Amino acid sequence: MARLFPRRTVLIYTLAGAAIGFALLHPYTMLVYGIHGKYEATALLSHIADSFTPSMLHMGLPFALIGGIAGLFFGYWLVSEKKREQVEMRACAVNTLKQLMVTLSHYLLNASAVMGGYAAHVLKTEKDADLRKHIEAIREEAEYVEAVVKSLQSLEAIVTERYSKDSETMMLDIKSDLEKRLAEKKAA
User: Fold this and answer.
1) Which of 21, 39, 130, 155 shows the greatest Cβ crowding within 10 Å of its Cβ?
2) Which strand (E) or helix (H) includes residue 87?
3) Distance between CA atoms of 147 and 139, rounded to whole angstroms?
């Protein structure tokens, strides 16, 4: 369907150009020809009307051809401009997403480093087992946030999955990379 639309647009502009060439350029040429002395002012309008008779078809077809060619070029130009705009819009969207990713990465990694660092420091000195369990959960979640950001930064292909079983919203599928990063972190 996407390929049909540009062809249809070009065809419409080509036909419109041909119609304009035949219905406007040809009669206009007849008017100019008549003004330059071949016809009297009273016969001028009938001369223009004659441009639509079958006997003048051979004169009107070249104007239709010229108009059709102009319409063809205009249609192709219009389609290429629309494609160029779409490419620019996609590039802008990708650039915005890159900036968003850099910004989120910066702030999330900074927060994760602070939380994980303080949690690791407190774990070295804390004796209360219940409190150590909560602090260990904070440290693990900080590592999880760091692994999520690193997985998103290293994406090479976009694979999506549903956010939830009933949702139409899609999210990036980083599950396997995330699990690999977390396993490497625990092994270290």
Assistant:
1) 21
2) helix 57-125
3) 12
The length of the chain in residues reads: 188
Residue 1 pLDDT > 80: no
- Joined together, the tokens standing for residue 64 give 């239709």
User: What mean pLDDT value characterizes the chain?
Assistant: 85
pLDDT digits (tens, 9 = 90+) for 161-184: 888 888 888 887 788 888 888 888
Both tokens of 45, joined, read 């309008």
d(CA 22, CA 54): 12
CB 51 within 8 A of CB 94: no
Residue 79, Cβ neighbours under 10 Å: how many? 17
Contact predicate 51/30, CB 8 Å: yes
- Please report the DSSP string for 103-118 in residue order: HHHHHHHHHHHHHHHH
Specify burial of residue 2 (Cβ count, 10 A radius: 0-12, 13-18, 19+). Answer: exposed
